[in-house]
From TrEMBL:
The active site is at residues 191, 384. This is Signal peptide peptidase SppA. The gene is sppA. It comes from Candidatus Merdivivens pullistercoris. Belongs to the peptidase S49 family. One of its GO terms (molecular function) is serine-type peptidase activity. Keywords: Hydrolase, Membrane, Protease, Serine protease. The keyword Cell inner membrane does not apply. It holds the Pfam family Peptidase_S49.
Length: 578
């Protein structure tokens, strides 16, 4: 079996190597063909800035992979910072008459949506108009559209504005059925990460924190929509609860749109606003191209580094997540770069490994110890380990919809001995030199002494967590313990209790960093640097060995990875229906 597996692996390795070589050659030829072309697209000097969101609005730049290019897919990303700066530039650009937006196509996080909407509010304040056309508005797309002077809806469209919701699945009954026992050690009555594995129902504490958090986020969204449309939040709530928003006639009746229009009728309206008679005389400026070509790339001796901590905090090295070793090494290189005096730490993370988070925090502390300014900016998440790594920053910006806090610690130890014996029909014999040497082998439950040992370890880390928050935020440890307990807070709530300093986005954080540093001009440099297409290609094929594992081997390895580790992480990956 081992010989056949090795032979198969060798064969696949040769085939993959040949395939990669071909792709590298294609990429090289393609690169040569592009040498004579301008890297920036050419956009009209005058016209209507068209925001149709063909590109995903992302935290940081993600190039199109070589494989996607070969498949004919060339949709890229526009970073939220470039998008915001483009809107700011458009407000002052005499060539931009107004903005035409199709918000239904928006793809991005809730924090990106919030920050872009705030930028569009400022655009309107400049005296220029925003016109939106929607066909099937959802809560997210309508929230974005509500910033407009006029909103039109397709007469055949339908809306699905139902409020905010989040589902949580509990696994204990299933795990009991198949014979797996999960032992959860935690500190914090609201620290519900791991709860679905030990309970069949949601705890009252977990229900309360999630209801309060969702309501706080809705308060921010609902108030902005209501204010924009000249209605009360109570009226908006009544419409949603009564399921009265479906057809365009419903939206028109309750004042949420200004009229209906087909696609061709919308074109006629744009002709009128642009003061031309024929569609061919309309001049559209594609927003994604505008963001790339017209946002100024300042070259200055004053540098502000924007460091993106995006993803889960994991041990070792990682390109997809925040690797404790690789990310702290990146921070160490920035620390040694004497040309960088000011850093904006953009955190978009639900947390993860405690030890990895501590490595990253250590590097942030060393940077601050050199007298440099570190400003934190929170995206959709900056919770648990995400808060751990940033609590000691000089100033913290958070979006209103950011999920933060979750100051707590947990550890899970799976016991799969029963399923191994009764379902897999395997007999496992343990030989050990000391009484607790098999504590984490997952073949038996912890005994009482081992549970006390793990609880003491979790409590020690929780105490350290609350102390570092108290030190970073200038609070008493007792107060931090009161607002901690693993509880998740929305950004507006976090501001009230002192976990953050100001509600604002990435652009606000950068402007603040420049102001406190006394920079009248500055250059923004981003870390980590975007990967090349070849690097992305190599990564895509780097995990081929896992394909040769059996499902059993893969499942066992994943369980073994989490057993006994300490985590500071959000209880769920919250994905709101927008």
């Amino acid at each position: 079996m081992k010989f056949l597996k090795t032979l198969l692996a060798s064969f696949l390795g040769c085939a993959i190597a040949l395939f990669i070589a071909v792709l590298v050659c294609i990429g090289f030829i393609g690169s040569l063909a592009l040498l004579g072309q301008s890297s920036a697209p050419v956009v009209p000097e005058n016209g209507i800035l068209k925001m149709d969101f063909k590109n995903v609005v992302s935290e940081r730049a993600v190039p199109v992979s070589a494989i996607a290019l070969l498949q004919g897919q060339n949709t890229g990303t526009t970073t939220i910072y470039d998008a915001i700066k483009a809107v700011e530039r458009a407000a002052a650009d005499p060539g931009v008459r107004f903005i035409y937006m199709e918000p239904d196509n928006f793809a991005g996080s809730i924090s990106s949506l919030e920050e872009l909407r705030n930028a569009l509010e400022k655009f309107r304040a400049s005296g220029k108009a925003i016109i939106s056309f929607t066909q099937t508005p959802t809560l997210g797309s309508y929230w974005l559209a509500s910033v407009s002077d006029k909103i039109y809806m397709a007469p055949y469209g339908s809306g699905m504005i139902l409020g905010l919701g989040s589902q949580m699945i509990y696994f204990k009954d299933l795990l009991d059925e198949i014979g797996i026992n999960i032992q959860l050690i935690r500190h914090g009555k609201y620290k519900s990460a791991g709860e679905p594995y030990i309970k069949s129902e949601m705890s009252p504490e977990n229900r309360k924190q999630n209801e309060d958090m969702l309501n706080a986020i809705w308060d921010s969204i609902g108030e902005e929509i209501a204010q924009a449309r000249g209605i009360t939040v109570e009226e908006l709530d009544s419409m949603i609860n009564g399921l009265r928003l479906d057809s365009p006639a419903d939206f028109m009746k309750y004042g949420l749109i200004d009229g209906t229009a087909t696609k061709d009728e919308m074109t006629e309206k744009l002709c009128t606003l642009y003061e031309v008679e024929d569609e061919k005389d309309l001049s559209f400026i594609p927003f994604d191209d505008y963001a790339i070509s017209l946002v100024p790339k300042t070259v200055s001796k004053n540098k502000i580094a924007v460091v993106y901590a995006d993803g889960e905090i994991v041990e070792g090295k990682s390109t997809e997540n925040i690797g404790g070793d690789s990310f702290s090494k990146q921070l160490s290189e920035i620390r040694k770069d004497t040309t960088i005096r000011t850093i904006v730490f953009r955190v978009n993370s639900p947390g993860g490994s405690v030890s990895a988070a501590e490595k990253i925090k250590r590097e942030i502390d060393l940077i601050k110890g050199q007298g440099r300014t570190v400003i934190a900016s929170y995206g959709s998440y900056a919770a648990s380990g995400g808060y751990w790594i940033s609590a000691n920053c000089d100033y913290i910006f958070s979006d209103a919809t950011t999920l933060t806090g979750s100051i707590g610690v947990f550890s899970m130890i799976p016991d799969i001995g029963k399923v191994i014996k009764e379902k897999a029909h395997l007999n496992v014999y343990t030989i050990k030199t000391h009484e607790h040497a098999d504590m984490f082998n997952m073949m038996r439950p912890l005994d009482a002494e081992e549970e006390r040992y793990m609880q003491a370890s979790v409590d020690t880390i929780y105490t350290k967590f609350t102390k570092l928050v108290a030190q970073g935020r200038g609070m008493e440890v007792g107060y931090v313990d009161e607002i901690a307990q693993g509880r998740v807070w929305a950004g507006t709530e976090a501001l009230e209790i002192g976990l953050v300093d100001e509600i604002g986005g990435l652009a606000d954080a950068i402007e603040y960093a420049a102001a406190v540093s006394g920079y009248s001009d500055y250059e923004v440099v981003q870390y980590p640097k975007p990967k090349t297409q070849i690097e992305m290609l190599m990564e895509q094929f780097g995990g081929m060995d896992a394909m040769l594992e059996s499902p059993f081997e893969n499942a066992y390895r994943n369980l073994e990875e989490v057993s006994g580790k300490m985590y500071a992480r959000l209880p769920w990956d919250y994905e709101f229906e927008f």
